[in-house]
Structures are given as structure tokens and as C-alpha cells.
């Protein structure tokens, strides 16, 4: 069985009906990359940059971030690399950066909200990303976007950072700018967002739609990725992407679990991003679909 799954690794994922499904990997920690063959996937669908921020050494400077982003792009060898801006807060607290004492951190100052509240920190990351953008196909993704204005404000800030770098004589470019769809308000209002691509964050979307915490064992049965309201939102976002020619993928754990893949493909998704260890199993499941 493992051999049969592994045999899918070397080929692009196609459904039984011959439809191409982009299969990216999630990178939580780039240390795992040497063990992954980049040719086994279509690129990186999510990089959780929290790994850079959670170490002992305090906040990472522009140079250290640039080094990490360039290493990822070098590994990917021309395949697209999606790097998510800092998603601190909620289940990912960063001491000294995320607020203490919030009564409900999942509904608080987390993700892009925190980055916009801390332009001193955010601008360093945007500078590093703008410099990495000249190295290959970089896609920058924003977490926890709720309103179109947040995306617009970020795009404006990003453009300003690019002009500043160029004025300093440092090569830089504006990458594609996309967003996570993990807040129900954003999923319901998807057409209002000026994003270059979308990636559904089912880990958070499921918890916000069902009002059942992603880390709360006592309500585990309510935290159901197959809840009709969740599938309806995924379907609507996929349809919006199809009609407007923008990529919609899904990078939450739901995509890494083969038992949910048929529902995602039924909902219209044709791109997923999975944990590297789940890639072979996911590609095998896709091959059996339809
Ligand atoms: C998600 O919410 O599904 C997601 C991919 O992001 P994270 O798990 O890092 O919140
Ligand atoms: Mg999330």
C-alpha cells in the first residue's frame, strides 16, 4: 500500500477523470525540506513563518528573514513558494509580541491584525519578502483577513516598502499578494477582496463556523470539517475563484486527511496544500477520485 502511494509522488496529481489538482506542501519548519523531493509537489502552499519568531533570539531581522525565504525558494527550484506573514496569537502565542490576558485570544489581536498594529515588526517582514520576490515565484499570503480594508492597507504598505528599497538601491519587487480565507465574514464577502489568490484555512474556519475551538477536546465532535456551513463556504470561495480566474487552495489539516479530500473536490477545489508526510497519501486519494 505504501509502495502504491509512493508511486504517485513522482507524477502530477490527476483525478480519475483526468483533472489536474495542484498539490502543494505546508512548511512549518524548513529543516524538513532536505528530506522532501521538490519534484514530488507543485511547490509550497503555506509557510508558517512563526518558526522565525519563536526562537530565543528575539525578533528576526530583515537579513535573517531574507536568508530563510531565499533558502525556501532555492529548494523549490522555480516552483511557486507561498509564504504567510506572521500569524502570531490564538494557538500561536509569541511571548513579548502577542498580548497577554485576552479573554479570548482566538478572537483577539492575532494574525494580520497584530501585524497591522505593529508596523515596526510588519515592515521588516515585508522588506525581506519584497527582496525575496526577485528570486523566483513568491506568493505572499496574509492570515486572518477579515475586511477588504486590511488587505488594501497591507498592499499599500507593501508598495511603499518596495519603493523605499528601490530608492535605497536594493533590488526588490512586489510579489503576488493573497489571503487566507479562515474568517467567516471574509468567506461570505469574498468578491470584495482584491487578492491575487486565496487559500482556505480550514483549521480556523471550522472553529469559527461551528463555535467549537480547534484545541478543545470536549467539543471535538462539533468541530466537524464536514459541517454543511463549512462546505458551503468552501464551495462559494472555490466558485468565486473559478469565475474570476484566481487560484483557491486549502491549506488546513482537512486537506491532509484523505477522508475529507472527496468532499473538498466535490466542493470544487482543484488545489490543496498538505503536510509533507501526507503528500503521497493525498495524491493517491486524488487519483481515485471521480
Ligand atoms: C488554518 O487555519 O487552517 C491554517 C492553515 O492556518 P493555521 O493552522 O496556522 O492557523
Ligand atoms: Mg489559521
UniProtKB/TrEMBL annotation:
Superkingdom, taxonomy of origin: Bacteria
Catalytic activity line of the entry: L-histidyl-[protein] + phosphoenolpyruvate = N(pros)-phospho-L-histidyl-[protein] + pyruvate
Keywords, sorted A to Z: Cytoplasm, Kinase, Magnesium, Metal-binding, Phosphotransferase system, Pyruvate, Sugar transport, Transferase, Transport
GO cellular component assignments: cytoplasm
Enzyme class: transferase
Binding site for Mg(2+): 182, 204
Cofactor requirement: Mg(2+)
Gene Ontology MF terms: kinase activity; metal ion binding; phosphoenolpyruvate-protein phosphotransferase activity
Catalytic residues, chain numbering: 251
Chain positions recorded as phosphoenolpyruvate binding sites: 48, 84, 203-204, 214
Compartments reported by the entry: Cytoplasm
EC number: 2.7.3.9
GO terms under biological process: phosphoenolpyruvate-dependent sugar phosphotransferase system
Domain PEP-utilising enzyme C-terminal: 6-287
Sequence similarity: Belongs to the PEP-utilizing enzyme family.
Function in brief: General (non sugar-specific) component of the phosphoenolpyruvate-dependent sugar phosphotransferase system (sugar PTS). This major carbohydrate active-transport system catalyzes the phosphorylation of incoming sugar substrates concomitantly with their translocation across the cell membrane. Enzyme I transfers the phosphoryl group from phosphoenolpyruvate (PEP) to the phosphoryl carrier protein (HPr).
Name of the molecule in the record: Phosphoenolpyruvate-protein phosphotransferase
Name of the coding gene: ptsI
Residue span relative to the full protein: 245 to 534 of 534
